[in-house]
């Protein structure tokens, strides 16, 4: 049984809402020391041999966090768009025992800082697509507008996710090559890539909702009925004018 515009629009809304929820969780990860926010981070590394650093460090959007005995993050003062750059004053402010890949380069600093604006822009378009998604269940134009907004959200979300993957995978490899055990944050990466997939599915579903409207038998029937009404009206008008002309000819 083919899907209707209502069901396609609802599925698009479902995947869009799921993507927004996952994006919010990653954005707020490390903002507060409460579950589940203190379980979401991008990278964890053993920094016990770096002066002034925690034994284990975790990087989030908001701060550099230490790790409690129960495995939860303990984050201090929050600052938005916290950079991932160990020698930086916002991180460890030293180069002692810091992997040489981080020294003398702005690559990690700039890449990690650009993640935050891209994820916010993508989130904005995703929220807009969520609101217009209600119209997608009713109108064809609503489906196309929602698809466009979801596509814009997907574009910025994909850029952000690729930046995140590149910079933190490189950071993990740098720590590992220096003999410091490190690992990626499974939740943050799983949430971001899942959100990207959800937005991709939303784009497709909203587009299909617009296309289905054109092939809907009910839509075609209504169009034919409207066409039939106007055709019969024109025919009646032509017949009426013909009779008037015939009547005028007889009287003449």
UniProtKB/TrEMBL annotation:
Region Disordered, annotated ranges: 220-252
One example of a Gene Ontology biological process annotation: endocytosis
Compositionally biased region (Basic and acidic residues): 241-252
A cellular-component GO term for this protein: membrane raft
Residues annotated as signal peptide: none
A Pfam family that the UniProt record links to this protein: SUR7
The entry's keywords: Membrane, Transmembrane, Transmembrane helix
Record's keyword annotation contains Membrane: yes
Cross-referenced InterPro entries: SUR7/Rim9-like_fungi
Transmembrane segments: 7-28, 114-136, 148-169, 189-213
PANTHER family recorded: PROTEIN SUR7
Protein's recorded name: Actin cortical patch SUR7/pH-response regulator PalI
